[in-house]
Structure prediction request, 90 residues.
Amino acid sequence: MFTKWVSCLTGPLTEVTLAPDGNNDWEVELVVVLGRGGRHIPEADAWAHVAGVTVGQDISARAIQLQGPSPQWSLGKSLPGYGPTGPWLV
Prediction:
């Protein structure tokens, strides 16, 4: 599990501007969209909190993720457009 900030999320038809010299990488992911929150949810009730699933592309600027004395994975994964999803929620 990792963070994708809302500012990076976009639909399936988008133009992504890659970070220059960012050693950009991508993976296809199953995206679970939560419909309602909760805490300490019993496993048997988990799907009642899911609005649906969709496909997403996890784009990462590896150089940004690993820079600095304390690497921050979320920064390199959350640039504008780095989270295309969809087109369907099932």
